[in-house]
Amino acid sequence: MGSGSSSMFRMDDGISPRDLKIDMLRDGLRGIRGRFQDCVAKGKKKEVCYAVAANELVSMFGSLLPYVAHDPELRYFLLRGSDGQLLVYDADRDVYKIVDFVEAVQRLLA
Question: Would you list the domain boundaries of the chain?
């Protein structure tokens, strides 16, 4: 789901809201996932590969990083946007969806 190169996702670090291009988010996160996988495939310890990936996430998101969650393998991401929106992303399938926070919680607890 989610196409259209001009789609934006708004995130706010408490200082200033930022509109981020969804295509750029997808490309960046997919790249981080790929580099993590390549690092592991070369026989390096997952902890080392994760540290490298974590630095890339810091570079990509900066002060927005506290609003970005991911699994240990850096495949699945959840970004908390402003206005109660969540962007969920699967870096292997390159699929994302934007959902309302309240709706997501209600579905998970149903």
Answer: 17-109
